[in-house]
Design brief:
The chain is mostly beta strands. It is built from 1 helix and 69 strands.
């Protein structure tokens, strides 16, 4: 009650302006002057406490100067009246008196003065002298106190009286002075910590602890992305930075901050390379108007302006960084392991753990996840379209089946890793043999699949889907319901929708090649114009994601071709190997062409593979060379994936020198299986090859790893 009256009194003084004299000096005001006990026994003591403002105070009877709110101890031997004199800055004086009676009847509180922390419990004891009834009534100006004198302080910094009044003689009252110095409220981020890095659209739950608060509730806010009242944060679908703020409901000045970054995605996220080798990384900056980056590496070699890592021969674990052109730069990272003595044994082995694929397949899609696993989706199994998803673990060398399936069984579709870490599965051929316009999105981290928000403007199969540097996906060509397509569509992960591109390619294309060049443009070359081998394209279209322009390369291939393999050299030149070509009649090619992005022209290779290859499997290797594998030496029926005569050989190609190694008179054989299929580089340096035997006829072979 005393504190509440004091607060009201001081508020009135402030509003009325009566604490100032007319000449600007302070008027001395005594709010209260009390002893903690008005009755003491001879030899006893009590506390004098004064609360005042506007001057300097002294107490007579030898007490001397006194500070507002600070108790002083007095031990009178006889009944004594103490006078408080408060002198203002202009000489004004205020007086107050407090009398302490010394006699045989008294009431004491122990302890008479105590300092507590917030919400702390303290037991007080009342001691009576000369009274037959020792009972007292307890009262606390703040906090709470029970009938036995057990007091709990409020959870805030303050000062006040706890009093005991005699039941027998209510004129006897003793007081104890309590000061509370509460520990400050403190917020601690338990997860993810002071910083967090997420993929676009990725979610996380913020976990925290709050200390010294009566009300443990907090509020959440974010300058980048969104966060629920329960602390579930979702990153925006773009690269950028921001903060998440947690704020105490009890004390809004108490906060904790998490710095959030959605960095550029650097692909692949991790890779093993051989000492002295080169390897090209890619950066994907979703949502930036300028997706250009600057490359660097902490040790172990150098980075070209286009993202090509060149090992200096040092072995170890190194970090590659891509910094955006924003201010400040936003940095994405990937990791390179350079292993001493890394060489390929030129052998093909089954997964070492022995867990082979459940569904053997062709015409499927292989996609490397952001976590470096490999997803096999859909395809044909024994001639029937499949909806199965299986995942290969390169570390453990085993397959596991997903707990979900595609909503639509499909083959000859595309599957593309998005900047969100999800995989976009687009189009393809249905179980009834018709092109599909639907798309599905698989989330590897949660093993969940959902329909895409939009669908293709044109149903298509045997198309290409290419992740561009700005995070969008370019869908090109393929077969539609009425024939081969020359149209393009663009999928935007930020909206989940497909948008037809207004300009068509110079040629309709199926069985063509789509590759991201080092300068970020997308090469779309060759293919069949009408699905036959008699009408093959010898042109290339170039899509620039930075300008949104589609152009036609200045030069032409030496002949139209489809079903070729492609590999990019560290100098930016693109090699096209094998496939079907038409110098005069359709043939399976044993040689290749090279495309120069600077001049836009093609040139013929002076060396050739060990055998002609229709639809060879091709993958860059950890030593900078490329594996060229399998395929058929014949054409097969029009529109088939490949012929029926397997090459039975493989080649290792150096894209920098355009040389093929000589294995001697007996090159390693690969047998008659893996005629068709897909292959993909593993983070360990091996190449996973997934396919079927003899174009679906014969004994299924599942998968092998080149190492």
């Amino acid at each position: 009650m005393r504190s509440r009256l004091l607060l009201v009194f001081l508020t009135l003084l402030t509003l009325l302006g009566c604490s100032k004299s007319e000449d600007g000096g302070s008027i001395p005001i005594i709010v209260e002057f009390l002893p903690s006990r008005a009755n003491v026994n001879p030899g006893g003591s009590t506390l004098l406490v004064a609360n005042f403002l506007g001057g300097t105070a002294t107490v007579d009877q030898g007490v001397g100067p006194i500070t507002s709110g600070v108790p002083v101890t007095v031990s009178p031997t006889i009944t004594t009246t103490y006078t408080l004199t408060l002198v203002g800055t202009k000489g004004d004086i205020a007086l107050a008196k407090a009398t302490v009676t010394v006699g045989a009847r008294s009431l004491d509180i122990t302890p008479a003065q105590v300092a507590l922390s917030g919400a702390q419990t303290q037991s007080f004891t009342a001691v009576t002298t000369g009274l037959s009834d020792t009972r007292v009534k307890w009262f606390a100006e703040q906090g709470s106190i029970d009938d036995t004198g057990v007091h709990t302080s409020p959870n805030r910094s303050t000062s006040y009286w706890v009093s005991a009044t005699s039941v027998e003689d209510p004129t006897l009252c003793a007081k104890a002075f309590v000061t509370v110095a509460r520990a400050p409220i403190f917020l601690s981020i338990e997860s993810p910590g002071p910083t967090a890095s997420l993929l676009p659209g990725e979610s996380m739950t913020v976990l925290y602890s709050i200390f010294n608060a009566t009300n443990p509730a907090v509020t959440f806010s974010s300058t980048f992305g969104s966060i629920t009242a329960g602390g579930v944060y979702s990153a925006p679908l773009r690269v950028g930075t921001g903060t998440i703020t947690l704020r105490s409901v009890e004390d809004p000045t108490v906060t904790a901050v998490i710095d959030v970054t959605v960095p550029a995605m650097v692909l692949p996220r991790s890779q093993t390379v051989a000492p002295g080798a080169t390897f090209a990384f890619r950066a994907v900056c979703l949502g930036l108007s300028n997706p250009a980056v600057t490359w660097s590496v902490d040790a172990g070699g150098s980075m070209s302006p286009d993202g090509v890592f060149t090992s200096d021969g040092s072995t170890g674990f190194f970090t590659v960084s891509a910094s955006t052109a924003t201010t400040p730069p936003i940095v994405g990272q990937a990791f390179v392991t350079v292993t001493g003595g890394f060489t390929y044994a030129n052998t093909f082995v089954a997964p070492s753990a022995g867990n082979e694929m459940t569904t053997r397949r062709i015409d499927h899609a292989l996609t490397r996840t952001y976590g470096d696993l490999i997803l096999a989706s859909g395809g044909l199994s024994a001639g029937v379209a499949s909806n199965r998803l299986e995942v290969f673990n390169p570390s453990g060398q085993f397959w596991s089946q997903s707990g979900v399936t595609l909503a639509t069984a499909r083959s000859r579709h595309s599957a593309t890793l998005l900047p969100t870490g999800h995989i976009l599965i687009v189009g393809g051929r249905s179980a009834s043999g018709t092109p599909l316009a639907t798309a599905e999105i698989y989330n590897p981290s949660s093993d969940a699949i959902t329909p895409a928000a939009g669908s293709l403007g044109t149903a298509r199969e045997d198309h290409t889907a290419t992740l561009m540097q700005d995070g969008r996906v370019l869908i090109a060509g393929g077969r539609g319901a009425t024939g081969t397509l020359n149209s393009l569509e663009i999928f935007n992960p930020a909206t989940g929708t497909f948008t037809p591109f207004g300009t068509a390619m110079v040629d309709a294309r199926v069985g063509h090649t789509a590759e991201v060049l080092l300068d970020g443009r997308v090469f779309l070359g060759g293919g069949s114009k009408d699905g036959t081998d008699a009408n093959l394209s010898n042109t290339a279209s170039l899509f620039n994601p930075f300008t949104g322009a589609l152009s036609t390369a200045a030069g032409f291939m030496n002949a139209g071709r489809r079903n070729m393999g492609a590999v990019l050299a560290p100098n930016g030149l693109l090699s096209l190997l094998g496939g079907v070509f038409t110098p005069s009649v359709p043939l399976v090619n044993q040689g290749g062409q090279r495309f120069d992005p600077v001049t836009g022209t093609f040139s013929s290779l002076t060396s050739s593979m060990s055998a002609p290859r229709n639809r060879p499997l091709m993958s860059i290797l950890a030593d900078g060379r490329a594996l060229v594998f399998g395929g058929s030496t014949d054409l097969g029926a029009t529109g088939d994936v490949a012929g029926t005569a397997p090459s039975g050989t493989f080649d290792v190609y150096d894209p920098s020198s355009t040389a093929f190694p000589v294995f001697g008179s007996n090159p390693p054989a690969v047998g008659g299986d893996q005629l068709t299929g897909r292959c993909i580089l593993l983070y360990t340096g091996g190449v996973l090859i997934v396919g079927d035997a003899s174009n679906g006829a014969g004994t299924p072979v599942g998968s092998v790893v080149y190492q």
